[in-house]
Write a structure and sequence with these properties.
Distance between the termini: 39 Å
CATH architecture of the largest domain: Orthogonal Bundle
Number of domains: 3
Strand order of the largest sheet: 6-7-8-9-11-10
Structural class: alpha/beta
Order of helices and strands: EHHEHEHHHHHHHEHEHHEEEHEEEH
Number of helices: 15
CATH topology of the largest domain: Arc Repressor Mutant, subunit A
CATH class of the largest domain: Mainly Alpha
Helix content: 40-55%
Length: 354
């Protein structure tokens, strides 16, 4: 027989208000199911962090199994909530990957509107743009305030706009602070919030010394290309192939796709980038255990040659035994010395499978 499932959606105001006031009411609601070993699903658990002590008790003493979902680990930590150390597995869910979408996937659509699941329930481009604009307003801005993650909204709103403009670029905290009329420490804290709420990832500069790596400026990638375009004020307009925006979005898409797929494999890995000068860099370095690193250059061009592999050909010599890939829209497989150039989809599957 299928396992019974009990769902508590804490977006329901009355339910969340009740359980926040009387957490033990959860136990009363579960009593009729005792002995049936149900899965108990609590959605948006960060809204009532007091429940986690009771969840801990039920895991330890009863036969219930819990699936807890939420969008703000930061709020739980700030509230000194019971994070169930040693009692829970932690999984991150992202916008849909290429492998999940299969025949529904379109690169142009993914770059324009991203791959949040709700996007694929909408047919018209205007509806997709409307959804993304509503999402950025109701979640990225208002919900973060509601959760008391940010108490001063105006500079954070300005920060989100600037962060979208700086998407895929090296972070300059001082310049951003000037743009939003704040200070570098606050800007760094805002980036922490985006990471803690799974709205993006910092890509640190590569260095063999962790201490020195922490002193170098990082890049930041918003978690979804559709959200990046919306925050940048571009979602209502066509995306022009071979444009600067297209190249940025393609890079962000590839970085996020690899990050999602590697995360879902539940194995340890480390991502970084290497920049020596403006036109000499490696877009992505993947380190996994004791294996030789994987070096990746990302180009949106539909026809690549040795010039596009310049960073890898020059800097890659310092990475002994590394695997080096040039990922692009070029449909043809090519070899430039130690660099293997592949179409982006084929390259991702090969890199993930290594």
């Amino acid at each position: 027989m299928p396992t019974e499932r009990v769902l508590f959606d804490l977006l329901d105001f009355e339910l969340s208000n009740e359980l926040a006031s009387y957490p033990n009411n959860l136990l009363k609601r579960l009593t009729p199911h005792h002995g049936k070993t149900p899965w108990v699903v609590i959605d948006e658990v960060q809204k009532v962090p007091q429940l986690l002590d009771l969840v801990h008790k039920l895991i330890k003493e009863k036969s219930f199994k819990f699936a807890l979902t939420g969008s703000s680990a930061r709020k739980l930590k700030r509230g000194s909530a019971n994070l169930l150390a040693g009692r829970a597995f932690v999984y991150h869910l992202f916008p849909l990957t290429v492998s999940e979408l299969e025949d529904q996937f379109s690169l142009d659509d993914a770059l324009k509107y991203g791959t949040l699941p709700q996007i694929f329930e909408l047919e018209s481009n205007s509806d997709k743009a409307g959804f993304l604009k509503a999402y950025t307003e109701t979640y990225l801005k208002e919900e973060i305030i509601t959760e008391q993650i940010v108490r001063n909204l105006p500079p954070f709103r300005r920060f989100l706009d600037v962060a979208a403009q700086m998407n895929t670029k090296v972070i300059n905290y001082s310049n951003i602070a000037k743009d939003i009329l704040s200070d570098p420490k606050t800007v760094s804290g805002y980036y922490d919030i985006l990471e803690d709420t799974l709205l993006g990832i910092r890509l640190p500069a590569y260095h063999t010394s962790i201490r020195k790596q922490q002193k170098k400026a990082s890049k930041f990638y918003l978690f979804d290309t559709g959200i990046a375009r919306t925050l940048a004020g571009q979602v209502d307009y066509d995306l022009i192939p071979k444009s600067f925006e297209y190249g940025q979005l393609f890079e962000g898409f590839i970085i996020n796709e690899l990050y999602r797929r590697l995360t879902y494999m539940n194995k340890q890995f480390k991502l970084s980038f290497l920049r020596v000068q403006e036109d000499m860099e490696i877009d992505l370095i993947i380190e996994r255990g004791k294996s030789a690193p994987t070096l990746i250059e990302i180009k949106s061009a539909d026809k690549v040659d040795e010039r596009h592999a310049k960073g890898l050909l020059t800097l890659g010599r310092d990475f002994k035994s590394s695997k080096q890939y040039l990922i692009s829209n070029d449909p043809h497989k090519k070899q430039f010395s130690q660099v293997l150039a592949l179409p982006w989809k084929e390259a991702i599957e090969l890199i993930i499978g290594d």
